[in-house]
Amino acid sequence: MLKYDSFYFQCPHCHAWLEGRNLKAELVNEAVLYSDGKVLNDNLITTPQKMIMCPSCGHSFWVEHPEEPFITYEKPEAEVYSWNTWRFFGINFSDNKGKMALINHYKTFLKKSHYEPKKEIYLRRFLWWAYNDLHRNHQHIRLKYFLNGFMSYGVWRCNRRMLLEGEKLFIRNYKDFTENLRRLLALLEKHPDEQIDLELPEIYRELRQFDKAKELLEKVGSRTHFTNELLRHSKWKDARVFMVTG
Ligand SMILES: [Zn+2]
Asked: From the CA of 15, how far away is ligand 1's center (Å)?
């Protein structure tokens, strides 16, 4: 069964048709939430991609509130670029090269133009998540993930090598990571409507400002598993992104 509804839209520059996909919420088996707010459903990110680079002409454009006739649910007669050709700029995420390419795309977008705060927040948040992707699921390097039977030895070893290399790349790019996060923090503090739940304490935690993170978390009225986990990691002085539920 298809888990998606397809829709179609045109590049405003060359008018090529692109296929977009909306996940059918009722068919989602498994949602995973990470501390930085990234949610994966069936291993795919569900936050819509708003910055798109046309696979035909390379023109980049923003899709905020797509409306007819710009968007149609009827497959056009013309040739259509499939979702995989433009989704996350056609990047392959199975290795760290792809993850670094994604980081560089966001950095280029941010350098190329001046954006209104809402758009800059979107791009900086995706850049933050892209840096975190380098060492997301770092706990999988532990032998227990192989012993638990989650993956075969070959897959576990290969994944482990990629995560260890990803951690090195993360450390190498740490200055850029913190610069982006500081800028995102300043924007979110100015525009509280744009904040995702518990995003501010998480940013402080990832910036290693554990006391500030704890201070904000202590103020949260109704404690949830998410709040408790963030508090725990802040007390441990652990700044790495982690899986909250999954
Ligand atoms: Zn185009």
From this structure: 6
Distance 19 CA to ligand 1 centre (A): 13
Distance 18 CA to ligand 1 centre (A): 9
**Burial class, 193, CB count within 10 angstroms (exposed 0-12 / middle 13-18 / buried 19+):** exposed
pTM above 0.85?
A: yes
How many whole angstroms from 71 Cα to the centroid of ligand 1? 15
SS3 assignment, position 58:
coil
* Cα atoms in the Cβ-side hemisphere of radius 13 Å centred on 173: 22
Contact 77, 44 (CB under 8 A): no
Token couple for 47? 């936050």
Ligand 1 centre from 85 Cα, in Å?
A: 13
User: How do beta strands 31-34 and 39-41 pair?
Assistant: antiparallel
Q: Tokens 């995989």 sit at which residue?
A: 84
Ligand 1 centre and the CA of 78: distance in Å? Answer: 14
Torsion sign (Cα): 176, 178, 179, 180: positive
Instruction: Please state, in angstroms and rounded to a whole number, the distance separating the CA atoms of residues 129 and 35.
Output: 10
**pLDDT digits over 167-195, tens only?**
999 999 999 999 999 999 999 999 999 99
Residue 241 near residue 135 (C-beta atoms within 8 A): yes
Report the C-alpha gap between 46 and 37 in whole angstroms: 11
Distance 14 CA to ligand 1 centre (A): 4
Confirm if 129 and 98 have CB atoms less than 8 A apart: no
Confirm if 103 and 173 have CB atoms less than 8 A apart: yes
